[in-house]
Amino acid sequence: MVLGRLLRDDRGGQAMLAVLLLVAVLVPILNLVVPEGNPWHVSTYTVTLLGKYLTYALLAVAVDLVWGYLGILSLGHAAFFGLGGYAMGMYLMRQIGDRGVYGHPVLPDFMVFLNWTELPWFWQGFDMFWFAVLMAILVPGVLAFVFGYLAFRSRVTGVYLSIMTQALTYALMLAFFRNEMGFGGNNGLTDFKDILGFDLTNDTTRIGLFLASALTLALGYLACRFIVTSRLGRVAVAIRDAEARTRFIGYRVDHVKLAIFTFSAMLAGIAGALYVPQVGIINPGEFSPLNSIELVIWVAIGGRATLYGAVIGAVLVNYGKTYFTGAFPEAWLFALGALFVLVTLFLPKGIAGLFSQAVTWWRVRRPRERTARVTP
Amino acid sequence: MSKPNPIKTTLLSAACAVALMALTPAQSAEPPIKVGVLHSLSGTMAISETTLKDTVLMLVEEQNKKGGLLGRPLEAVVVDPASDWPLFAEKARELLTQDKVDVVFGCWTSVSRKSVLPVFEELNGLLFYPVQYEGEESSKNVFYTGAAPNQQAIPAVDYLKDELGIERWVLAGTDYVYPRTTNRILEAYLKQNGVADEDIMIDYTPFGHSDWQSIVARIKRFGSEGKKTAVVSTINGDANVPFYKELANQGVTADDIPVVAFSVGEEELSGIDTKPLVGHLAAWNYFMSVDDPNNAEFIETWHGFIKNDKRVTNDPMEAHKIGFDLWVQAVEKAGTTDTDAVQAAIIGLETQNLTGGTARMLPNHHITKPVLIGEIQEDGQFAVVWQTDEEVPGDAWSDYLEGSKDLIADWTPPIMCGNFNTVTQTCLGSEAE
Amino acid sequence: MPTRIPLHRGIWISSLLVLLCLFAVTRVSAEGSETVSFEAALIDLSDPSFAVKQAAVDVIAASGDPRAAALLQALAAGQLYVRDADRALVLVSPSAGDYRLRDALDGSELGEASRREVKKIAINNRMRTQLRTAIAALTLASPDPAVRLRAAQQMLGDPNPLVIQAIRDQLEEEENRQVRDYLTLSLALADLQDPATEIRLRGIDRLSGSLYPAARNGLNRLLSAETDPEVRDAAERARTHIERMRSLNEAAETLFFGLSLGSVLVLAAIGLAITFGVMGVINMAHGELIMIGAYTTYLVQQAMPHWIDYSLFVAIPAAFIVAGLMGILIERTVIRFLYGRPLETLLATFGISLILQQLVRTTISAQNVAVQNPSWMSGSLQINPALALTYSRLYILIFALLVFFALLVILKRTALGLQVRAVAQNRAMARSMGVRSGRVDALTFGLGAGVAGVAGVALSQLTNVGPNMGQAYIIDSFMVVVFGGVGNLWGTLVAGLTLGVANKLMEPWAGAVLAKILVLVFIILFIQKRPRGLFPQRGRAADG
């Protein structure tokens, strides 16, 4: 019922979720049941890769929610993603226990390495999975809330806001690079062993993580659909298109912005938490401002303000990156750069726009054919 | 356009195949041995790593000229991890599972090595890592052909202390794990040698730091207090150019305050105007200027391969060369490229260093290396001013750090462990069964 | 009488040299050799062992031979070679492809030789110090004031009584103020070690107010051993005085560092202040335009290797034109289709920046390239012994201001500037008034890009020139423009200099990394207070 309401008029979303469902069913079967060597076999490498793309897709959906529907171009969403990732990374570090290279019962290797004797306070509690997950959502949420509260209240908008979010992620990157911070400095957190007692190198664990990513992406997508189809979402679009007018009508613009921005940050945090166990490392490079710009580009390529377009963009660009870095290691940046330029020039609505154009074209054309058949 | 004629096509391809068979030796019938190359070709590390990619390609080409390995040709598989650390792990997995390479030569930064380490251990691959690093690691699947701290930092400090009479020390580094560890080891070592706290100044800067005015001024002041002062620099790559320029401009010359660097080699100097730097030092295990027939041959091959006589050679390139030679020998000895067989075969094998002497693969997967101290010359080369009498064996676990002084690595039976505690006689952590 | 004094002085110098000689003899005999003659030492100079060479230098320095000073100077300067054929010492100066040789002892021409026929006599740091001391002793009476100055500096704080006497004699003769300063300082330092209280007090009095580090070190040394309360008291006071003066100078130095860092930020940002601030294009390729300017400098220097000192004067216009044309190209092919959609210019220019980076990597090299500093950019301007301003920073600070005011004049005083501002404020209105907005857009973007290129020339003098250099500046540049207020050149100037000084003020106690983080946090908070930056643009044009 609810699902029907959410996805009404969202053919792209329907198709996307259908494909997602298909992939989520097929991939585990093709990986676990079909024997290796069979052309239909999907390798574990591909599974992890797909899992990574799905977390990126969730992140892109979060960006599209604020950019496409609220008009806030955040150049700092990688910061929320990274924070979520660090929360999960800290849990995975604590799970290593005494299996680190120094065999210390509690301290992660890098702390032994820096001669620390006890666990810093902010590492407490991360041995519990629920706590880590909570933090992966709360920390980005609180940061976004505080940042948004300050920025939206004083009506920082447009380019200024974008540059400020960029400053935020840049400052976080520099901070996490510092070894004194207690997050492993430049090396970040790595060498994870298991999650919830399951061995991370195990194929079934990987499938599990992949399915979790697919499920979270679907839920995240529906949650965003829920917001954009609700009254809140319509006010958001009004703010995007005419902020001053919306304010004069009597809406609390800053409250709406704050709510959606914080939600989006939490979603990014969850994406980060799912990302880390699948790639096996989290380090300050994730906070790099360039990453944030890149993910905005995924959304632009997929098609802004469509949500499902963000998913398409994230998966496509990252697949392209994987493929080209292997196939044309010397020239892939040319291809990527040219792609960005061409898409902005010729596909202002992204791939999703192309898709809906095609649908319109098809609809316009079909009746004519029908008419042609009727009249001899 | 005419359609392709099937008969013509078949004939043509058959002719081609025959021609190819006639041209290439019979060995091509065998599937090639694949050599993975995992070096960044774009992003921040491309500056250093592209050279290493070319080095491996050259080594592969040379080996093929000698008729390949085990009667099979070698084939290099190059990927670009783009200076993106998670991408290193992904690309490592791609090389090992999709391309099914037999060995990988790659990585530069510690974080990239840490990122791929779990992948190599999980998939039981072979990685040869060619760069000097902070130690504190020994994996069954990794061979460390660059210097451990005891093969670079400690001999350099000994040289400054004994030969130049240095009493005050500035330990300047980029804020990441290699400088942090090296400086901690050096600090402990200096204090053991009676250097007082106030005579050691430690300073960390971010990556790519470009404004060195304040720090150089501080170093100058620190060095003007009457005691002979030296800077031990673990400043990384890009930040070095503005650092040295600032030193020169503020009038800090090598005879006032010598700087000994662990990350500045010929390649880095080729991007600097070296005139003001003459006399500053670097500690490495290889210098291009060393007069040795092996080295001359290596340089000549390199110039021929890269088609540019101006290109320099450097320490990590030698490390790849040594690693490659040892791997080739191990495969020949084992008669297979199988990881476990190569691992067992390679320990104890020896090859010629390019600077004379031999490199031997030790049970802890590090190698023996001579330590050379060179002074920067006007032409961007180093003149060797001091060197160890014999090769220094690489030590995975530093004797000067609290956590690791009781640890050793030994990948031969019966220990077979990368972090074996000699006091408790146990294998720690992840290797424990 | 000019003849008498040198003789007198000569005695002291030769006794000093005798002392050195004794030292040398003991050293050489320790090596197991008895050769102490000048000629024998010459042969030892080409020995591969540094120990043998050091002993030889001592012998030569002490020989009293008139050729010694020139010989040792040549050795220190790295011009002394040995000819393989007859092991003769030769002076080498490079000539086209080969070397031109002169006899090291009598200076007679020996013709040309190839690189393989001669071998350089290598020296190490220890030898450099040794040579410097020896040369100082031999050249304190040199007619060239610059040489005397170097000798006086080298001898500073040397407690050897023979050295002190030589200094005292030289002081009577000396006319050059700087050399006198050093000599007096040396004598004052010697006074501190005198057993007589009044002499020590005299020394303290002379040192008080001296900014030379040696003065403070001398006082510190004195205080660590002194027992006489009167002397202690005087020394304490002198030291406090020195410390206060030094900290004043340090503050001035920090301010200069801050302004200099600020000027780099201004230079990097000012092109962006036009493309982003005036035109509203979020130009992510701005850093790469800087990079193009820097590479232009490199190519200019490659083209004129013998004229490095003038290369920058060629490079500045060249970089402006190359980067400007690149900017016009970018504007005409991409950006002109995106006006009114600022966020999409971000995406397209980001793509362009990737392409430009990779272009440099494939066409030139993935490695950094070496850009040389002209000789007038090297070294520093010594204001006083505790304060020196490096020339490169000083010139770049001035250059940044010049570029800034030139831009200001272009925008405020020329027809183009008027049109630029008109189009920026209201494109439709400007067009209807007959402004060819397309041409103006192209020129404005070209101007911004050209200025970025010129910034690249300046930055090439300070830092790396490589494919990644642009990325290092892009974020800082945006911060400066936003902090200053978009669309306001003065804002960019004030913002850049403020951030530079703030950064440098915090650096000593917070460290470089934390200082940068704090500055970023400060900007974020500041923008909450003043959402349009330091100097907000007034009127409707600011909305959007």
Automatic annotation (TrEMBL), chain A:
It is a multi-pass membrane protein. This is Urea ABC transporter permease subunit UrtC. The lineage of its organism: Bacteria, Pseudomonadati, Pseudomonadota, Gammaproteobacteria, Chromatiales. It comes from Thiocapsa imhoffii. It comes from the Bacteria. The gene is urtC. Keywords: Cell membrane, Membrane, Transmembrane, Transmembrane helix. InterPro entries: ABC_transp_permease, ABC_transptr_urea_perm_UrtC, LivM-like. It is found in: Cell inner membrane. GO terms for cellular component: plasma membrane. Its main location: membrane. The chain crosses the membrane at residues 12-33, 53-86, 129-152, 159-177, 207-228, 255-275, 295-319, 331-355. One of its GO terms (molecular function) is branched-chain amino acid transmembrane transporter activity.
TrEMBL record, chain B:
Pfam families: Peripla_BP_5 (PF13433). This is Urea ABC transporter substrate-binding protein. The gene is urtA. Transmembrane segments: none annotated. InterPro entries: ABC_urea-bd_UrtA, Peripla_BP_I. Residues 1-28 form the signal peptide. Keywords: Signal. The keyword Signal applies.
UniProtKB/TrEMBL annotation, chain C:
The chain crosses the membrane at residues 255-278, 310-330, 342-360, 394-411, 478-502, 508-527. CDD domains: TM_PBP1_LivH_like. The keyword DNA damage does not apply. Belongs to the binding-protein-dependent transport system permease family. LivHM subfamily. Pfam families: BPD_transp_2. The keyword Nuclease does not apply. It is a multi-pass membrane protein. InterPro entries: ABC_transp_permease, ABC_UrtB_bac, BCAA_transport_permease. GO terms for molecular function: transmembrane transporter activity. GO terms for cellular component: plasma membrane. Keywords: Amino-acid transport, Cell membrane, Membrane, Transmembrane, Transmembrane helix, Transport. This is Urea ABC transporter permease subunit UrtB. It is found in: Cell inner membrane. GO terms for biological process: amino acid transport.
